[in-house]
Amino acid sequence: MTQTSHALVIDGLTIDRPNGQPLLRHTSFAIDRAEVVLLVGPSGSGKSTIVKLLGGLLENGPGEWRVSGHLHCGGQPMDLATERSPVGGIVFQDHALFNDLSAVENLRIAADHAAHPPDSVLIADATALLDGIEPTQTVSSCSGGQRQRLAIARTLLADRPVLLFDEPNSGLDVAMARRLGELIRDLCRTMNKPALVVAHHVKDLLPVADRVLLFDTRNHRLVEVPRDAEAIEAALLALDESVLPNGGQAGLNETGLAEAGTLPGAGKGRDWRQEIGHRSRFHWFLRYLAEYFWELCVSPLMLIYMGAGALIMGFVSMWFGFHYNSFGGYLKSLLHDETLVGLGLVQGTVAVPLISSILFVARNNAIIAADIGNRVLSSQFSAMQNLRITARGYIFSAILINMVVGSLILLVISLGMASWASMQTWHIQFPMQSFELWRSHFFRKLLPDGLHPAFSMVWVLLKVALSSLLAGGAAIVIGCGKKESVLEINAAIARSIIVGVTLTLLVHAVISILTL
Amino acid sequence: MTPVNALFGKPAAVAASLALGALFLSAGWATLPTRHAAATVSYQLAAPMDGTPAASAAAPAATPIPVPVFLMQPDHATMRSGTGLLRPDGRVDITLFDPSDPRLIHGSEALLFNTEFRVLWLLATDEERARLWRGIEEVGRGLRTAMDGILESPEFTGEYRDALQEIGRMAIEEAWRAPSTRATYEEFLRSAEPMLHDTVGRDLKAIAMKQVEPLVWNLIGANVGMALDPFRSQSWDLGPVDQAVDAILREAREAGLVNRAARQLADSWQAKAFLKTFAGNVVDALAHQQRLRDVAGRMVNDPRLGAYLKPVSGPAGDLARLAPDLLFGVQAGADLNALAAHTFQGFLTGRGGPLIVMMSARQREDILTLDRYSPRILLHAVPQ
Fold first, then answer.
1. What does each C-alpha distance from A396 to A280, A371, B315 come to in angstroms?
2. CB count, 10 Å around CB of A35?
C-alpha cells in the first residue's frame, strides 16, 4: 500500500481483546486527505476501539489490549505494538466537555496543550462553529447541539492530523444528523484533513461519506462496502441479527445545530479568536488549584459546616467538662484551673483536630469521588489524555495540595471557633470571672508564651495534613475506578467517605499515641 | 462572566466566604491571651514589721517573677483579677484583667502572701473560722474521751500499758544519757545559778529580814523562863523559828517569787535548748525502738481498741467535711474560689510562690490582727 498519497495508512493491524479474543486480524486500510470515511458495524463490534487506538487511548500491554501493526501518517511510521498513536483527535460520543470550565476555557485548554500553538486559520476554522455560544457560557447551559459543536471545535484546536468522530449522530434526529454530516464534510475539505466517523446509524451520514468501511466481526477485518444504505444494512443484519434498521432515533428536540445553521467560515469567529489567546501551563495549574481551593476549602457552605462543627466541639467539651457530676461542690473550684488547662490541651491537640479532619475528609472525599467519577464516566479524562492535558498535573495535584493546605487552614479556623465557643461556654458557667482568667489557663500548654504555639502543635499539623493527604489520595483512587453508571459513582462516594474517615482515625490515633 | 465568577461562582458567595473567614478568625483571635499589657497599678513592698522573722514573708526574688493577683470582695469571696510582676527592688506592677471592673472598688489595699493553706484560713470570714474552731474543739474533746477510754480499758491496761511504760522509761533514760542532753543540761545549770542567786539576794533577803526582828522577840519571850532557870533540863522552844520560816515561805509564794524564778529559768535560751535536745532525743530513742513499733502495730490493728475511738470519729468526719467546704468551697454569691484553686495547685506542684490579694482597708486590718507577720503589706506606688 502506497503511503505518499494517503493521509493515514494502517498496515497489518491486529488487535486482541484483554480476554484474548481477537478483534481484528491483519487489517490494512488507508484514508486520503479531506476524505470522510464511515466506519460501521454491529453494536459492540469494536468500532470505538479503533477510534481509541488512533486517538492514543487504548491501553496496550499485559492484561490489556494487545496490538500489533504499523501506522503511517505524515511520513512518520509508527509501530502500534509499542507506541501510542498521536494522530487522532477524538470527538467523543458524549462530547466529554470539561464541565467545570466555561466554553472558551474548553477551547483554551485544548489550544494551549496542542503540539503546536494553533495558527489563526485553524482558530478561525474552529471558532466558526461556535455561532450562538457565548465564550463565558457554562457547558451545562449549552444545548446538545452547542455542546457537539464545542466538542468539535475543541478537537480541531488540538490540531491532530486525523479527525475521529465516535458516533456523532447518536441521539440526533435526521435533520440535525444530516447537518452534522455536512459540517464534518466541510471541515475536512476546508482543513484538508481526513475524518473517520464511527456510526451505528449510517443513513444520515452516507451522503457526506466518501467511503464506507464495514467491521466484519466474523472475519475480524475491515471491509470496504458500497455507499449504499440498503447494502450496508443488509451486511449489518447479516453480521448482527439484533441490529434494528434505522430505528430508535429519539430526537432530542435540540436546536443547537439548526441554530448554527452555518458551516465553517460563516460564523462570527473574531470574538472567539481574541478570547482564546494563549496561556501557560502554569496558568492552568493555578486555574485548577483555585477551582479546587474554592470547592474543597473556602466555599461558604464549607466554612459554615466546619465552623458549626468547631462551635459544637468547643461547647460540648467545656460544658460537660465542668458539669460532670463529680465536679460538684468545692472540687469544682479546686480543679478549675487544671481542668481548663487539660481541656485546652485536649481540645487543641486531639479533639478539634480530629473533628476538623473527619468533617473535612468526609465532605471532601464525597466531592472528590463524585467529581473524579463523573469525569471518568463522561470520558473527560480520556478527552484530557487525547488533548495531551495531564490530569495528574492539574487535577490530582490540585486536589492533593488543597486537601493538605485546606485542612490546615480549616484547622486554624476550627481551633479559633472552638476556642471562642469554649470561652463563651465557660463564661456562662462562671459569669463573675474575667475572660483573661480563661485565657491564661486554657492556652497554658498550647501557647506557653501567649502567642507562639508549643512544639507539640507540629504533631497536630502533621496528623491533620497527613490524614487529609491520604484520604484525598484514596478518594482519587476510588474515583478513578471504572465507572459505567451513576450508581457506581454513588458507591464510590460512599466508599471514599468510609476509607477516608477510617484513614483519618488511624492517622490521628497513631500519631497521638506516639507523641503523648 | 468575570474570572471570579468562572472560578468561584457568584460574587456574593465570595463575599460570604471572606466574611465568614474573617468572622471565625477574629473570634479565634479574641480568645488569645493578652500580652504586654501596661501595668494598671503599682505597689511597693513595705519593710517587714518589727520582730518579723525574715523567712516568714515572701521576699522579692533576684529576677522579676509573675504573681497572681486576687480580689477579695466584701463577703470574703475571692476572684482572680490580674497578674503582677514582683521586681527585685520590691516593686510590684499589677496588670488588672479589667481595670473598669466596679468590684475593684473593694480592692484599694493589697497584701502579699506565700501560697499556703494558711492564706485560706486568714481570708476566711469570722463566722467560718468560728465554725472551724468549734469543729476542732469537738474533735479535741472526742479525742480526749477516746484516749481516756483506751487508757482505762482492760485491753490496754492488760496488754499494752506496761509495755508502753517500759518503752517510755527506756527512751527517757536513753535520752537522758545522751551526750547532747548532758551538755545542754550542764549549760542550763550554769546559767540557772546566777539567776537564783540574784533572786535570793534581792527579793528573798528582804522578806527574811522582815521576819527576823519578830523572830528574835518571839524567841526571847518563849524562852525567857528557861533562861532564868539554869537548872531546868527542858530544851529550848524553837516554835517561833518554825513560824518565821512558814511566814517567809508564805510571803514568798504570795509575792510570786518562785513562779518568777521558774519563769526566768524557763525563758532562758539554755532551758529551751536543753528541753528541745532532750525531747528530740526521747523521740529519737522511741523511733529507734523496734518494740514500740510492734506494740503500736498491735494496738492499731486491735479491733477491741477501735471501739473506743467512736467519740472522735463523728466530730473528725464532720470536720473533714466542713474544713474543705469552708476553705476551698465557693462562697454564696460567687461562682469560683480562684484563690483556693491556686493554693491547691501550688500545694500539689510544690511551686506556690507569692500571691497578692487586694482588699479593703478594713479587711486588711482584720487579717493583720490575726497574723502580723506572714503577710507583707504593699504600699501604693507611683505608676511608672
1. 18, 11, 75
2. 20
Domain ranges in chain B are: 41-129+332-381, 152-331
pLDDT digits (tens, 9 = 90+) for A172-218: 777 778 888 888 888 888 888 899 999 877 888 888 899 999 888 88
The predicted structure's pLDDT at residue B212: 64
Q: If we measure between CA atoms, which residue out of B58, B63, B139 comes closest to residue B357?
A: B58
Q: What DSSP state is assigned to residue A325?
A: G
Whether B54 has a pLDDT exceeding 80, the answer reads: no
Q: What is the pLDDT of residue B4?
A: 52
Q: How many CB pairs under 8 A join A and B?
A: 135
pLDDT at B321 over 80: yes
- Inter-CA distances, B60 with A188, A281, A356, A463, B354, Å: 96, 67, 46, 45, 9
Residue whose C-alpha is closest to residue B49's, from B369, B358, B380: B369
Closest CB to A300: pick one of B16, B335, B344.
B16
Q: Which positions ≥6 away from A22 have C-beta within 8 Å?
A: A14, A15, A16, A220
pLDDT tens readout for residues B270-306: 888 888 888 888 888 888 888 888 888 888 888 888 8
| A102/B contact by beta carbon, under 8 A | yes
In degrees and rounded to multiples of 5, residue A19 shows phi and psi of -85, 5
Query: Alpha-carbon distance A333 to A339, whole Å?
Result: 10
Burial class (CB in 10 A: 0-12, 13-18, 19+), B269: exposed
- Where does CATH 3.40.50.300 sit in chain A? 33-57+86-207+228-279
φ and ψ of A267, to 5 deg: -85, 170
Indicate the pLDDT class of residue A503, thresholds 50, 70 and 90.
Answer: very high
Range 101-130 of B in CB contact (< 8 A) with A: 101
Q: Does A415 touch chain B (CB under 8 A)?
A: yes
Name the residue type at position B364. R
DSSP string for B60-106: PPSS-EEEEEEEE-TTS-EEEEEEEEE-TTSEEEEEES-TT-GGGGG
Interface contact B341-A300, CB threshold 8 A: no
pLDDT band at A465 (very low <50, low <70, confident <90, very high): very high
What is the mean pLDDT of the segment spanning B297-325? 86
Min Cα–Cα distance to chain A from B381, Å: 25
How would you class A48 by CB atoms within 10 Å of its CB: exposed for 0-12, middle for 13-18, buried for 19 or more? buried
Quickly list H helices, A66-192.
103-112, 120-127, 144-157, 174-191
Nearest to A381 by CA among A168, A90, A142, A150: A90
Nearest Cα residue to B58 out of B346, B328, B338, B363: B346
Q: Choose from A305-309, B182-186, B318-322 the range with maximum mean pLDDT.
A: A305-309
Mean pLDDT (chain A) is: 86
Neighbours of A408 (CB within 10 A): 17
For position A262, what pLDDT does the model report? 42
Q: CA dist A38 to A167, A197, A209, A368, B207, Å?
A: 10, 5, 6, 38, 152
Instruction: Please state the three-class secondary structure of A6-36 as a single string.
Output: CCEEEEEEEEECCCCCEEEEEEEEEECCCCE
Mutual angle of helices B257-267 and B269-287, in 10-degree steps: 70
* Grid cell at residue A401: 495540595
| CATH topology classification for A33-57+86-207+228-279 | Rossmann fold (3.40.50)
Specify the pLDDT at position A98. 93
Q: How far apart are the first and last CA of chain B?
A: 61
ipTM of the shown complex = 0.80
Whether residue B30 lies within 8 A of chain A, CB to CB, comes out as: yes
Eight-class DSSP state of A102: B
CB contact under 8 A, B33 and A433: no
Encode pLDDT of B98-139 as tens digits: 888 888 888 888 999 988 888 888 888 888 889 998 999 998
